[in-house]
Amino acid sequence: MKPAVSLDAYHAVRHGAAIIDRADRGRIVVSGGDRASYLHGLLTNDVLALRQGSGCYAAYLTPQGRMIADMWLYELGDAILMTLSRDVKDLVLAKLDQFIFTEDVQLGDLTEAYSSMALVGPLVPAVLARALAASEAALPLAEHGNVRLPFDGEPAIITRVTDPGEAGYDVCVPAPAMGRLRERLRMLNVGEVDDATAEAVRIEAGVPRFHRDMNEETIPLEAGIESRAISLTKGCYVGQEVIIRVLHRGHGRVARKLAGLVFTSDEVPEIGAQVQAQGRPVGSITSSAWSPSLERGIALGYLHRDVLSPGTVVEVGGVPGEVVALPFLKLRDDRTTSRQVTR
Question: For the chain, which residues make up each domain, given as ranges?
Answer without folding.
Answer: 7-202
